[in-house]
């Protein structure tokens, strides 16, 4: 059992992996007229959607930001339509999502970097003065809606995300998130259970917001720091599954501070419950919004003993000479050149500082998905949750083999 410090992409999205009540209820009152845009706001708005009674859908909507300048965002404000149970708002690493509307019945994609994730009627995410999210010129963003009509009548509505922007030439601190995710938990049948994880962040965190997550059996969540759990309480609250807001939390955390995340549950079922993304399983996770360097970082407590590594590895000369296999993995490419086959990405599109451009694949289950001479591995830079197809001679030491 090991707690490792890892960058996180999926933790934010996993905080949405919960079910929604489908009990029939009276139709809600008509929502108020949509408020006008504030000066400086950019809006990504869905097209009108219609849901029949009991119908559930996952819809995605994309847009591209202005090409001629960075977009600097100081507030994310959702405008919820009827039937909207959660919003996941992300930037797209590969800028290749379908333009406009598409159905997207997935919890999360490995090419999405979450910026905002919350359940129905969650408050806006407002950055402190001088803190902002920076998005590149032409960046594609995606808004995923989990929609469900729990009423007895059809509903038609729209949902949107509004980004309050500011002058990109003025100085600011970039906003980031730091997550803690405990994946080692078992709750015995018909009894109370609890789980604890501890880690030091390894860098200073100037925290301004908190998002916690458990599933239906959660009863309490607590974050503390000190040599022992509970020594200094940073956050403690009764857990309400139907209310998962982003809450203000102003605290400075030192690189060496020991953080403790504690969750408690009551299992009402006749079987043991363990970790999982479904609302029929359980989770114990938090996301801390901060204004310190680093976009996505965190701690994961799991059963792996060898996560991470030096980041080196691979035969440099052999990697430079790599040739495309039958899938296209390893083909040479350049940033923005669009040389890679459909479904593949160029390393320099994902990281402009990459010294070599070759085609790789985001998302694989086994090396057999990658073709000859390539391997499926989980890089440390993706928190161990993103799996990629890479030429075997180019695989870094910190990319853990999937098979």
**Structural domain tally:** 3
Average pLDDT, all residues? 83
- Within CATH, the superfamily of the largest domain carries the name Copper type II, ascorbate-dependent monooxygenase, N-terminal domain
The amount of beta strand, in percent, is 35-45%
- Cα distance spanning the termini: 20 Å
Question: Within the CATH hierarchy, at the fold level, what is the topology of the largest domain?
Answer: Jelly Rolls
Shape: globular
Low-confidence stretches: 1-10, 13-31, 304-314
Total number of β-strand segments?
Answer: 30
**How can the largest sheet be summarized?**
6 strands, mixed
CATH top level class name of the largest domain: Mainly Beta
CATH architecture of the largest domain, by name, is Sandwich
Helix count from the secondary structure assignment: 3
Name the structural class. Answer: mainly beta
Radius of gyration, taken over Cα atoms and rounded to an integer in Å: 22 Å
């Amino acid at each position: 059992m090991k707690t490792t410090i890892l960058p996180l992409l999926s933790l934010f999205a996993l905080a949405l992996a919960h079910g929604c009540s489908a009990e029939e209820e009276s139709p809600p009152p008509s929502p108020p007229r949509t408020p006008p845009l504030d000066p400086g706001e950019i809006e990504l708005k869905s097209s009108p959607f219609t849901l029949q009674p009991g119908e559930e859908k996952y819809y995605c909507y994309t847009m591209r930001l202005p090409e001629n300048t960075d977009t600097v965002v100081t507030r994310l404000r959702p405008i919820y339509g009827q039937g909207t149970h959660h919003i996941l708002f992300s930037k797209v690493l590969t800028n290749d999502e379908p333009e406009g509307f598409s159905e997207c019945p997935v919890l999360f994609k490995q090419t999405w970097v979450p910026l905002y994730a919350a359940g129905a009627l969650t408050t806006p995410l407002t950055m402190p003065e001088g803190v902002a999210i920076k998005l590149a010129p032409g960046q594609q963003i995606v808004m995923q809606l989990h929609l469900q009509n729990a009423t007895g009548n059809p509903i038609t509505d729209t949902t949107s995300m509004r980004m309050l922007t500011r002058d990109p030439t003025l100085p600011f601190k970039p906003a980031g998130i730091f997550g803690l995710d405990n994946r080692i938990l078992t709750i015995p049948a018909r009894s109370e259970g609890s789980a604890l994880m501890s880690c030091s962040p390894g860098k200073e965190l100037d925290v301004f917001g908190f998002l916690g997550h458990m599933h239906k059996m959660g009863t309490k969540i607590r974050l503390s720091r000190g040599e022992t759990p509970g020594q200094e309480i940073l956050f403690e609250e009764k857990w309400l599954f139907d209310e998962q807001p982003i809450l203000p939390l102003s605290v400075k955390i030192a690189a060496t501070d020991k953080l403790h995340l504690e969750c408690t549950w009551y299992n009402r079922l006749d079987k043991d419950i363990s970790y999982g993304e479904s609302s029929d399983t359980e989770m114990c996770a938090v996301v801390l919004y901060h204004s310190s360097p680093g976009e996505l970082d965190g701690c994961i407590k799991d059963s792996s003993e060898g996560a991470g590594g030096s980041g080196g590895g691979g035969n440099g000369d052999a990697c430079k000479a790599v040739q495309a296999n039958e899938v296209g993995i390893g083909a040479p490419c350049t940033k923005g050149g669009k040389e890679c086959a459909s479904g593949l990405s160029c390393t320099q599109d994902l990281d402009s500082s990459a010294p070599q451009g070759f085609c790789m694949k985001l998302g694989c289950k086994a090396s057999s998905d990658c073709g000859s001479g390539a391997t499926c591995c989980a890089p440390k830079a993706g928190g161990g949750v993103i799996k990629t197809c890479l030429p075997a001679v180019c695989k870094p030491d910190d990319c853990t083999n999937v098979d």
